[in-house]
Amino acid sequence: MTATAMALAAAPPAPLVEVEGLRKWFHLGGGLLRRHAVLRAVDDVSFSIARGEVLGLVGESGSGKSTLGRALLRMSEPTGGRILFEGRDVTHLGRRALRPIRPRMQFIFQDPFASLNPRMTVRQIVGAPLAIQRQDLDRKARDARIAEVLRTVGLSEQYADRYPHEFSGGQRQRIGIARALIMEPSFLVADEPLSALDVSIQAQIVNLLIEVRKKLDLAMLFISHDLAVVGHLCDRVAVMYLGRIVEIAPTRTLFRQPRHPYTEALLSAVPVPNPTVRRKRVVLQGDMPSLLAPPSGCAFRSRCRYALPACADAVPPLRTVDGGHLTSCIRNDLTLGRLT
């Protein structure tokens, strides 16, 4: 093997999705006090996702997770930064240029009932992307594809002519997943797809996502506040606080050795299945600050028990502390609690 061939073989594969300095700001008006107010829901976020990889995105409600997911798929227009999909910059593509890319980037919604049109049958809901993107298919071919994807998500094709209200919450979420898979995407954004479901159904949907990922080699951004599920499903985890990523690491590394105090607090809240084991809970003081007036420097410092005066000086960037482990905490002397 030549030196060039060996170098190419050793080089890591190009990421499927790359996000560089992504911002989504909302300009608020309607009153004198808020005439020039800017809500920085997503602020300078960067990460990448490889083909077939699942990246978990966790954080408290209001941290900007769902806004980031929607901006990533251009469901809402980003304010700044770049989004690259398969090496192509899609940040500013118009509707016509974006149309052939849309089928490969799909979204799974949080509420399985609100996201389904109650006046449409399952066949119409799941088949809608085909009607838009694959007008070359005749009705027989469309029905065959709909039946195939329904079987993939564990539903009988006999359900195709029923309406959403005739199904349970878990079945409705399966319908939403089928709609996302109908165009055979390579990337999914799953926006808290379990939060509206009963606990008994959540495990079924998690197992379904695992099966679908293996079968179709899907990459996924899995947005959740349930770290137990994230630990089971995801390859890496990104922790988000007040519009910024504060830590990214492989899942096992993050759970065993968190390097940011906010991650430590989130991990301490994960329930322990063994009733004889007691984990020390890290209780955050106060509420999350307003996105309209975040603290100077590190936004987490107002709730951090390890904060130093230097934490207020400047917004800390993500930095590498170990292979594949990045944190924005400026302190290297901390030994934080872990989830084993």
| Cross-sheet strand order for the largest sheet | 6-7-8-3-9-10-12-11
Biggest beta sheet summary: 8 strands, mixed
Amount of beta strand: 15-25%
Distance between the termini: 43 Å
Rg to the nearest angstrom? Answer: 22 Å
Structural class: alpha/beta
DSSP helix count?
Answer: 10
- Ranges where pLDDT stays below 50 over 5 or more residues in a row are 4-11
Mean pLDDT: 88
- Provide the helix percentage: 25-40%
Q: What does the secondary structure layout of this molecule look like, with pairings?
A:
Elements: H1 3-10, E1 17-28, E2 37-49, E3 54-58, H2 65-72, E4 80-85, E5 88-89, H3 95-98, E6 105-108, H4 122-133, H5 139-152, H6 169-181, E7 187-191, H7 199-216, E8 219-223, H8 227-233, E9 236-241, E10 244-250, H9 251-256, H10 261-268, E11 319-322, E12 325-327
Helix pairs in contact: 4-5, 4-6, 5-6, 6-7
Short synopsis of the structure:
The protein contains 10 helices and 12 strands.
Summarize the structure in words.
There is one protein chain. This protein is an alpha/beta fold and 340 residues long. 29% of the residues lie in helices and 21% in strands. The strands form 2 sheets. An 8-stranded mixed β-sheet has the order 6-7-8-3-9-10-12-11, with helices on both faces. Strands 2-1-4-5 form a 4-stranded antiparallel β-sheet. The two termini are 43 Å apart.
Features:
alpha/beta; eight-stranded mixed beta sheet; 10 helices; 29% helix; four-stranded antiparallel beta sheet; 340 residues
